[in-house]
Design brief:
The chain is an all-alpha fold. The chain has three helices and no strands. It has one domain (about 10-60): DNA polymerase, domain 1. It has helices at about 10-20, 30-35, 45-60. The longest helix is centred in the last third of the chain and has 16 residues, at about 45-60. The radius of gyration is 11 Å and the shape is globular.
């Protein structure tokens, strides 16, 4: 699961959309950099980073 409480969801979604539009196959570092302006109080970011990388993989396969 990428998100938990929902506090950061809007910012993470908009940042992810922008990142994947600019960089369809980002590295883990690029994902972390792209999401760096968002504060997540629950997850420690690892699940979110994995979810963004999986979304990029799924989009590339379609």
């Amino acid at each position: 699961h990428g998100l938990q409480c929902g506090f950061c969801t809007p910012g993470m979604l908009i940042s992810t959309r922008d990142l994947l539009k600019r960089t369809p196959r980002p590295s883990e570092g690029a994902v972390r950099d792209g999401l760096s302006g968002n504060l997540c109080r629950c997850t420690g970011y690892q699940g979110i980073v994995r979810a963004v990388l999986k979304a990029a993989e799924d989009l590339a396969a379609s």
